[in-house]
Amino acid sequence: MKLKPLLLASLLLSPLANAEHLMLHNPYARATPPNVATSAVFVEIMNHGEKDRAIVSASTPAAGKVELHDVVHEGEVMKMRQIDQIKIPAQSHTSLKPGSLHIMLFDLTKPLVEGESIEVNITFANGESQQFEAPIKKVMSGMKHHH
């Protein structure tokens, strides 16, 4: 019965072993009024691992297009810009929140209604992905969208 130790070792050495070091807290998507085709997803990501991690893409069946975004301040104007990745340092956390890093949703398939939820999948630079459910919440808009 040497198969069990071999199987256990292969599981521990697999890329999925790193996934347990990431914890997602308080995810949510912004509710939208009718006829608004964009929204955003926010989440707190904790990295308890020894290696830096980076989200390189995201997807959801709720949107036709999904991008990673940050907000930059140019004088007194806040502007969103697409970015290539969102870094989550080892033994640290990264907050995706309004007015900062976030996952931008375009071409929504239907309005996002408070009380419902959407499935979101994030993909990391190492090829791993993690899926989570984001409840839809009504959030006051604290920024103007400039693309």
Structural commentary:
The chain has 147 residues and is mostly beta strands. It has one helix and ten strands. Strands 1, 2, 3, 4, 5, 6, 7, 8, 9 and 10 form a ten-stranded mixed beta sheet that branches. The longest helix is centred in the first third of the chain and has 11 residues, at 3-13. It is globular and about 45 Å long. The model is unreliable at 6-18 and 141-147 (pLDDT under 50).
Secondary-structure-derived class: mainly beta
> What does the radius of gyration come to?
17 Å
Bin the helical content: under 10%
Instruction: Give the SSE string.
Output: HEEEEEEEEEE
Q: What sort of overall outline do the alpha carbons produce when their principal axes are compared? A: globular
Main sheet specs? 10 strands, mixed
